[in-house]
From TrEMBL:
InterPro entries: DAP_epimerase_DapF
Subunit structure and binding partners: Homodimer.
Site (Could be important to modulate the pK values of the two catalytic cysteine residues): 167, 216
Chief location bin: cytoplasm
EC number: 5.1.1.7
Protein name as annotated: Diaminopimelate epimerase
HAMAP family in the record: DAP_epimerase
Organism of derivation: Pelagivirga sediminicola
Amino acid sequence: MTPPWSGIFPDDGRPFVKMHGLRNHFIIIDGRAAPYAPSAAQIARICDVQIGVGGDQLLVIEQSARADARLRILNIDGREVGACGNATRCAAWLLMEEAGTDAVTLQTGAGVLACTRAAALEVSVQMGRITHDWEAFPLTRAVDTADLPLVHGPLSRGIASWIGNPHVTFFVRDLPTLDVAALARPVLTDPLFPDQVNVGLAEVLGPALMRLQVYERPGILTGACGTGACVAVRAAQMRGLVDKGPVRVQMGAGAVTVEIGEDGRTLMTGPVAYSFRGRLPRDMERTA
Ligand SMILES: N[C@H](CCC[C@H](N)C(=O)O)C(=O)O
């Protein structure tokens, strides 16, 4: 079937796949054969749901000397970030489907992550170790990252964690009634975080159950956040609020399971979903 209007809109632009993990949505582009390095303005337009494809992040898969592939994660403002749990699951699933395998390694800013198929549309990722080293973030001054000296309205006693990207987790009550973006915005831009920070509001519902919403850099409320779920479980365990075993983290559209080993290595398992595929307009290639 020839697509209608193909003469008006030539479909020879860069192919993309749109996927999501619990509504955290991504545009995935294969940059292995032909490198793809869009400008910040192009990234913003592609990620804009009203005038582009729509996505919380743009993902570019590249060749890697250290892993099966390299995953580059670009925020909607063009900034490259070191980690994204939901994106890692989606990209891993795509590469496993492509190769007909049940395991794949992905090089990210958090290191080389081992990913495996957990079920037909479910992927486990060994996310690496969570640290609380204030220099890793970086923070503008040395503080107790296990109990941050930061109060923004009802948010206090935050825990700062690094899992390839920076996060702060606050524990709250009645999460569904809160205006998460409004509460988290002043934290995201607090001068303590010169590179901004992803802000998670977590509520413990039981010894192995939490719910979470994350206001992500550069200032978007996402449907779910895989790295945010990992650090929220870690933070809850540090405070003795949940068990040491696997913890389910509910995030609106569903849940991920996070298991943190004795050695601090963090395994995250959760769903992936295919939305659609298509081609970007021709002018989404960088020309200069
Ligand atoms: N949603 C992603 C995290 C993206 C983090 C990014 N917004 C940053 O600036 O670090 C996840 O599933 O882990």
